[in-house]
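Minimal example, chain plus NAP.
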Amino acid sequence: MTVPSTALEVHLASRPTGFPTPDDFALVEAPVPTPGPGQLLVRNTFMSVDPYMRGRMNDAKSYVPPFALGAVLEGGAVGEVLVSDVPGIAVGDTVAHFAGWREYAVVGDAVKVDPEVAPVSTALGVLGMPGLTAYAGLLDVAAFREGDTVFVSGAAGAVGQVAGQVARLRGAKRVIGSAGSAEKVAYLVEELGFDAAFDYHDGDVRDLLAAAAPEGVDVYFDNTGGPQLEAALASANLYARFALCGAISNYNTDQPAGPRNLSLAVGKRVTLRGFLVRDHEHLRPAFEREVGGWVRDGSLRHRETITTGGLANAPAAFIGMLRGENIGKALVAL
Ligand code: NAP
């Protein structure tokens, strides 16, 4: 394949306040870099749009540095190797790496993806970072045990769809999910086998959860923070364990909503534990064996929402994901 001399990449044009808009991104034609020793040239085929990228658009100290203004964004991607100076990786291989938001990438750090095992896009979703997040958050962080009643917010998204099903397949007594539309609620119950699900827009979340979990909640997998964390505290059983994975309800506002009832954690002896997936790499082999097996035998199902039309549509895909337009993993096909 001939490599063009220039290709498209997406830059951060301005730092958003509230929800990002298309004007916060710039589609830029830039020279395709030449790989050096120990590097690959990759033609990206899929890139991931993830909630944490919203945090990196702010100029704020966090666990990852902010994106630089006027520079190319980054994030998970998979692609085809066009040039390789990396032992064990050949031209034509597919790799996963971290130089998304561009059509062609030069990378040193990449992991081979076997297209025979599963479609390569799954390396960014159910079999990649979001899947491992779900597995680690449920089993390691929340210390899930057979017989637990589990509540997952953001349950129809990339992480949530896996977290709820791992709980079901590992013997949860009851799995409850919340999501933002009737279509997502139907997906959770009818396709993924959740015992109950509700649309968090349909009333006071504390009432919706109490009705769905009449015997209370032992484990809460928190993707949203805010009102749903408050509801989970209200429904928590004694010694409940909460895995604080993310707080997307607070990402696009300067008026974050807290749980107003945090003091309930005292009397109920609730453990609330935040985590980052990168601290749980030791679980990857078990995750790949167990979740990979369930995906292959069909007992764990998943969806991807793939935006087509190339890199120009990546900002819209990202904004759409933040607004809840995705079911399952949000991806862009390049
Ligand atoms: P996702 O769920 O696939 O997509 C984001 C979803 O958030 C949207 O589809 C939308 O679904 C929901 N959402 C948006 N605004 C909301 C609001 N105000 N209240 C409730 N839900 C809202 O994203 P993901 O990749 O699976 O990530 C899920 C969470 O996990 C995020 O908080 C993310 O930051 C976190 N995460 C953490 C780690 C870690 O290492 N700790 C790793 C990966 C992801 P609805 O239609 O349901 O609203």
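The CA atoms of residues 21 and 211 lie 37 Å apart. The mean pLDDT is 97.
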